Amino acid sequence: MSELDVLSIILIALGLSADCFAVAFSGSISMKTVSPVQVLRTALVFGVFQAIMPILGWLAGLTVIDFIAGYDHWIAFALLVLVGGRMIWEAFRSTDDLKRVDISRGVLLLTLALATSIDALAVGLTFAFLEVNIWLACSTIGVIAFGITIVGFVLGRRAGALLGNYAEAIGGVILIGIGFRILLSHIL
Predict the structure, then answer these.
(1) Rounded to the nearest 10 degrees, what angle do helices 106-130 and 72-91 cross at?
(2) Number of domains composing the chain
(3) Of 1, 131, 140, 143, nearest in space to 58 by CA
(4) Does some domain include residue 92?
(5) Backbone angles phi, psi at 93, to 5 degrees
(6) Domain membership flag for residue 1
(7) Do residues 26 and 98 lie in contact, with contact meaning Cβ atoms separated by under 8 Å?
(8) Which candidate among 5, 34, 71, 112 keeps its CA 20 to 30 Å from the CA of 159?
(9) Residue 18, in any domain of the structure
C-alpha cells in the first residue's frame, strides 16, 4: 500500500462498521429473542456488503483517476469529511423505526445492509485515488464489519439503548480524522 498503512485501513473499517454496530445494537434491543443464526446471518450480510461496496467505488474511481490525480487528496478529504459528518449527524436522529422488527430477515436485512454500506462506496472511491491494495482493504473492512455487527448484537442485548447513537458518531469522527491525516500528509 502506498498511501494508507494497515492501521489506517483498520481505523477506516472501524469507522465504516459503526453503522453496522448501531443497527445491530438498536435492532437487537427491539427483538424479542435473538438466536445465533439471526446474529450470524445479519453479520455475514453486513460484512459482505461492507466488503463489496468499496470495490465498486474503487472501480468507479479508477476510471477518472488520470483526470484528478493532482488534487486527489482534496477529494479523499472531502469525501471522508462528508461521510463522517453524515454519520455524526445521523447518530443523533431517532431510530424508533427499528422498534419491534426482526432486522435479520429478508428485504429489511438487505435494505439495512445496503444503507449501512453506502459510506463504504465513497471510501472505495478514495481508495482508487490513494492506490490502496483494494483486496486487503476490502477484506479487512468486511471482516471487521462482521465482527462489529456481532458485538453490536451482544451489547445491544445486554446494555439497552445507552450507547447506540454515540457509536455511529465516534465512527464519523474517525473517518473525519483519517481525512485530515490524508490532507495534511499531502500538504505538509
Answers:
(1) 150
(2) 1
(3) 131
(4) yes
(5) -85, 160
(6) no
(7) yes
(8) 112
(9) yes
- Say if CB 119 and CB 16 are below 8 A apart: yes
pLDDT digits (tens, 9 = 90+) for 63-118: 766 676 677 678 778 877 887 787 788 777 755 544 456 789 898 899 889 888 88
Residue 34: phi and psi, rounded to 5, are -130, 115
Tell me the pLDDT band of 163, cut-offs 50, 70 and 90.
Answer: low
Q: Residue count of the chain, please give it.
A: 188
C-alpha cell at 48: 459482505
Using a 10 angstrom Cβ sphere, with 0-12 exposed, 13-18 middle and 19 or more buried, the burial of residue 84 is buried
Three-state SS for the chain is: CCCCCHHHHHHHHHHHHHHHHHHHHHHHHHCCCCCHHHHHHHHHHHHHHHHHHHHHHHHHHHHHHHHHHHHHHHHHHHHHHHHHHHHHHHHCCCCHHHCCCCCCCHHHHHHHHHHHHHHHHHHHHHHHHHCCCHHHHHHHHHHHHHHHHHHHHHHHHHHCCCCHHHHHHHHHHHHHHHHHHHHHHHHC
Domain range holding 19? 6-187
